[in-house]
Amino acid sequence: MDEARRVFTIAEFLHRYGIGRTRFYEEVAAGRLRLRKLGKKSLVTIDDAEKWLANLPIVEPKRDAA
User: Fold this and answer.
1) Structural domain includes residue 36
2) Which helix (H) or strand (E) holds 23?
3) 17-57 pLDDT per residue, tens
4) Residue 45 forms beta bridges with which residues?
5) Residue 18 structural domain
6) Global confidence as pTM
7) Number of domains making up the chain
8) HEC states along 41-57?
């Protein structure tokens, strides 16, 4: 992807973040990821993609009960 670009197509987003199309649309429907339209083309800004990634839950290591 050209570094000057500020958007991902859906296919680029799915490849970059390793999620499937169904999960992608679930995230959009839940309001956790913003989708923008340019004519018929659907786009995700890099800023929105990074915010989505930053807001994913953090998994804390489990502590052994001592």
Assistant:
1) yes
2) helix 21-29
3) 999 999 999 999 999 999 999 999 999 999 999 999 999 99
4) 7
5) 7-54
6) 0.82
7) 1
8) EEEEEHHHHHHHHHCCC
